[in-house]
């Protein structure tokens, strides 16, 4: 046995939770704690079978309204409204358990969920929306029972039937939703962003590198991009975003590339389809080294850096073509530009540079010597306890001996320049979590990385990652478990819904229109196919219809009559009775006439005459029109 | 569909008897009438005192038929039933004195108390509808119905009817206790034996004869025959049953179904008529395997019927 009121209360609590949860992160503390408290209190009241009377609730709602509305201002339009919605939803749960209150709670939950979309649009919204719709549909059906009899109790089997049918309604409307998907416009960013643009997302990647400004780097685990790409060997998983080639106030910055010869990148191309998250910078990362980026208007420069022409403040996608090479072949560079030094270089570093310059005749030998020096220093890779102060690089190399990629790369590049080898820094990401379900790499903020390119005379820019010589390096991972599926869901949501914009929809309609205008009848074969297909479809449909249809006139008539009766006397027709028994039991005048005529033909072994069939037909029609 | 001969009169008799004189015995009455209309015989199996004799008496008077009664004992001789020749001294020859069997309705009370010899004489008369005594054959009257009763509980000093002889009865049924309200009414009124003696005849013998003729004419279609055969075959193949329905059993089923259809005012048999009579016609003809003696025959039969769908089209 299932108590309808309990079931309804439980569902309402779930519905209210779905309204509350997505908003929860954006609420004021008062509203955030008021709702769970109200829910808890409502549960207690339900157990005791009591409810707060309107004479308590109405003044309380008015007070709460004034309290919250006092914080109202034009810039706080949405937050105050959300608070109000959530608080009223909580108040509704405390009220008497009558139909009107339930309906109000459902409506408020829907509004809350809608309000949450002003802040954030993600795939989770879809999940919330579907569960809310499903539960509201079921709850509405239960409410009809509740309205009839507040203490209604359903046997378990009946309850199961009711729930199944109620749940089927929203599920059946899903295809409609898919259909509407192609026509409804959709927004690419939360609407609330119009009114108050979010602060630029803090990214691990920046276009200046100055080690020693902070003692610790906090790890942000936000996604940076997702790239649909074939799997790439682990050691080649570098995402190139920016090249830093000059100094400004002792910090590495990017200056317009000098007059180098154009780079030649040879090798097999790896294609990636990249979906970056919204960022404040406009660099377009791609696997090292990108050769071209298409599908998004951008400016590429000869050092393999691509910059989007418009801000990346909404979800976009682009195609990148990269070659997994460790060398950019450049015939000739502006050596002087790449040998400039920062204003301040410590004595110890200078001495080391001089020693290096003497250690080898060419760049390769000098680099080998420098690698030996780095390894010999036994440096540790760390994100905390970083050297700061007067000369952080010196302190990193000779005293503290711990640092992150910025220290490694900066020191390495400066020492190379001291030794007379042109060098520059490359900023981007290292690694990536491969999602086997979606077939894409997920790159997160904490994978931000800086490495070095050194110029070998006559060869080109050679990629070197000095951080790799540290003791203990972080390896990239394989995505596992639930998180992988959740991320896949979010990825497809972005791919199919968010980046699918109105322009594309319009283009689709335009295309379809012009195609229809230009439609020319195909050749005879095509024409024949065009004719044959509907005919075939019709034949198949006819075949199935006939197969499912009773073979004789008698059987068809009887089936129609029995279906009619099953509708009129629900639950009465079990199918194990003779027609005369049935007519005697139901005492239906139409059925009595029907069986007399029908039985006298069927049980006398003769087919129905045309007149009899017509008469039976009439009886069935009359019966269907007769409303008892 | 033309009107069946005398069907209204027959239903009126049933209605009158069951509503006025014999409350709560509709089923037994109906089955008795069906037996009479098909020319079969009926075995009432129930404990004494439930009104078997009363019912038989009332039935006979309401139909305007003659009534004879035999109370069986272990020393009852065949001639006590059929009658015997007695020497008439004034005329100087033997005169045949007819026994109680020369009546339209004969009540054989406690048939299992008679010894087998008497039982077999009786059953022979039921089957042949005539009696041969000392070389002379006497035709029994038409219509002719034997209503035999037996007490299923009593075992001492009885000669239970063998299966082969049970088969001679078209219908076997019980009477059962009347429903509470009706029984209380009966308790208030007391015995109605006197009243029953004076029930006026509701139909004439001619009517009965034409009704019997009409039942014979009731049409049995192919679908119904198939249905009956399906039942027979199912009883023959059933794992619990040693011997299923005989062909005579099948004929009995069809005959009883005809009478049922007739009483419903139809001149053709519908499958539900067959199912209606199965429980009266079949159980006493089924012989279960020795290890399953105790199984309720009605249950097995119900299970069989459930398996076979009624032919509706």
Q: Give me the Rg of chain B, rounded.
A: 20 Å
**Protein structure class of chain A:** alpha+beta
Oligomerization: heterodimer
Secondary-structure element string of chain B: HHEHEHEEEHEEEHEHHHHEHHEH
Low-pLDDT runs of chain A: 195-203
Q: Could you tell me how far the N terminus lies from the C terminus of chain B, measured between alpha carbons in angstroms?
A: 20 Å
CATH class of the largest domain in chain B: Alpha Beta
CATH fourth-tier homologous superfamily of the largest domain in chain B? P-loop containing nucleotide triphosphate hydrolases
Query: In one word, what is the shape of chain A?
Result: elongated
CATH topology of the largest domain in chain B: Rossmann fold
Provide the domain count of chain B: 2
List the uncertain runs of chain B.
none
The percentage of residues in β strands of chain B lies in 15-25%
The biggest chain-chain interface is: A-B, 18 and 21 residues
Would you write up a description of this structure?
Chain A is of the alpha+beta class and 628 residues long. Chain A has four domains: 2-181, no CATH class; 223-483, no CATH class; 520-544; 553-625, no CATH class. Chain A has 21 helices and 20 strands. The longest helix of chain A is centred in the N-terminal third of the chain and has 26 residues, at 123-148. Chain A is elongated, with a radius of gyration of 37 Å. The two termini of chain A are 33 Å apart. Residues 195-203 of chain A have low confidence and may be disordered. Chain B is of the alpha/beta class and 313 residues long. Chain B has two domains: 7-211, Rossmann fold (3-Layer(aba) Sandwich); 218-307, Helicase, Ruva Protein, domain 3 (Orthogonal Bundle). Helices cover 46% and strands 15% of the residues of chain B. In chain B, strand 3 and strand 4 form a beta hairpin. Classes of the chains: A alpha+beta (628), B alpha/beta (313).
